[in-house]
Amino acid sequence: MKRLFIVGAGPGGPEHLTPAASEALRSSTDLVGYGVYLDLLGELTAGKNCHRRPLGDEIGRGRLALDLAAAGQSTALISSGDAGIYAMATVVFELLDREPKKAWRQIETEVVPGISAIQAVAARVGAPLSHDFCTISLSDLLTPWDLIERRVIAAAQADFVVAFYNPASQDRHWQLTRAVAILARHRPPETPVVLARDITRKNEMVKIEPIKSVNLSEVDMRTLVLVGNSETRRVSRWIYTPRGYGKPENGA
Amino acid sequence: MKRLFIVGAGPGGPEHLTPAASEALRSSTDLVGYGVYLDLLGELTAGKNCHRRPLGDEIGRGRLALDLAAAGQSTALISSGDAGIYAMATVVFELLDREPKKAWRQIETEVVPGISAIQAVAARVGAPLSHDFCTISLSDLLTPWDLIERRVIAAAQADFVVAFYNPASQDRHWQLTRAVAILARHRPPETPVVLARDITRKNEMVKIEPIKSVNLSEVDMRTLVLVGNSETRRVSRWIYTPRGYGKPENGA
Hints:
8 helices; disordered C terminus; 252 residues; alpha/beta
């Protein structure tokens, strides 16, 4: 059988790599991924054919993984976080849809979910995602800014907790400032904003600042930015978004 | 040290329980949770003091876990899925905030994230969450319906992929029908809707139907309902939400 695993390797720390993901890696001969993600797997890559590819060449990585699997190599295509959240799974299905090579169609594909960055960050700071939330990528490389801004405005008006993926890059900064300003118009000035980088990895960084004065200047492409809704609160070193259990009418 | 782990045990299959979660369970003497979730842990509960509590008594479970930890028992409070997504973590922080018992404040608390139902479902069907998405709970027990509907309308207008948690219960059905009808007004008739129950458990069920004719009558509280955005497509037995790599101008 020709096999391709699309594996979510989690935020980085091996303690968050699921047994299903470990097993998919163990049973593969070939691993395809961005070099940094492969390096994070440590000993799990020993003895494997490691195909390290640069960031940005997602289509190339997807094609390589499909071609390897079609050639009979048990292959794992690695994403950090969850393979299905702004990651490699969609690239594979898009290729299968638009370039339906006969050899690719014989591959048994399996998607293995993983702990996404947003979940690792939320756990570190408390329970900010405990009510309705949305994720928005601020990269306008593949999505027009008009649509992105429409989503930010909708999230602001409907009071979703918001997680921004791809918040900034070397050449892209104004989008995050603008998005946070939109949310700030609809939320109390003390609303907590979480800035987090490399969670569960070496050099982990996490800050919580009020939306009225949050400093966004050091946000880069590896930073995850999470903005509470109008009810997200602090308690000692934690933040949480209440579900309403504590309201007297709910019998708490 | 007085310790409380708030553990996300994943969707059910042991292959998705992270090493961090396993280790938290192993190092605890007392486990608190809804009985069904504890049963899913199998051998990991052997030799532990298991405190099985009914669904619906979230506050009771939270208080019990805090009291056990404060009394010096290493305690794990178990949620299915991710402990921070519509689950027990927020209950603990809400209790710490509103009932600041001195004994509770001495507890070292750690939240351990887990694979949520939405991720396990997405992986089974392909990559529906690969662009901006939101989660909305349809339970109006603790949240007024007006706010829930406002969020559904915002998600519809801004073309988010939508995952509905708590879509229905024995006494609550019209909300899901209404919410899906709102989305249907803004999406093509063939937009895929995923209905999934007990993913990774015995009796796993998953269906994909077009929004124009989806049958919602068998949706219950254990079902997760996921609605694609206007671009979510089928390819063979999979669905995916494109990120735009395949568009000619993006060099694919």
